[in-house]
């Protein structure tokens, strides 16, 4: 039997789906056949993405979800599980990023980023994981970063939060994989999105970034989406507890 990347009939929940990478992942999962449930703080921001998916022949619904609200996380995941009978795939894409020299980081800077990038991600895993464990199957893909394995100047809090994502991914895989739930992370390098375009369209900034990427380019949305679909599909059946770097070779150096 050959591996399949077909996600037809799968119920896929995506957090942070109104963000650049989240939008691309939602569209890619829908193209692979999944019914996607887009979540974010603003439902209005999700409707346009959902409609694009529907126009292209895919299935999409939206739900309001603030990942800093743990009670809401549990409520929304349970509502999705009840409405569709299952959750097959969870992609944790909600995240914050900011530049702060370490000496300038405030407690609020630390808490706001950790609340989204690590705490919110964990409780999304937990809420969806409970449903997946009951059904005996599931795929969780956490969006990490190359900054989880290398240091990035002025990103102490971000690097710490994403390093934590990798560790959570390992532990959840150890606890849940024997029960049919695979947990992995995807760690992209700088990725061109509407949100990063302002910086990456600056030739000096772009060259500074690309000079550290052996592939000689930044990532595109399809690069990240390909890794997510692989891990979410039967092609990734034997992969769990790993962080898949989509970094063009940055961390190989």
TrEMBL record:
Recite the UniProt keywords alphabetically: Oxidoreductase
- What PANTHER family does its record include? 3-OXOACYL-(ACYL-CARRIER-PROTEIN) REDUCTASE, 3-OXOACYL-[ACYL-CARRIER-PROTEIN] REDUCTASE FABG
Q: Where are the transmembrane segments?
A: none
Q: What are the recorded Gene Ontology BP terms? A: bile acid metabolic process
Any single GO molecular-function term of the entry would be: oxidoreductase activity
Say which family it is in.
Answer: Belongs to the short-chain dehydrogenases/reductases (SDR) family.
Keyword Oxidoreductase included in the entry's annotation: yes
Supply the name of the protein.
3-oxoacyl-ACP reductase
Signal peptide bounds? none
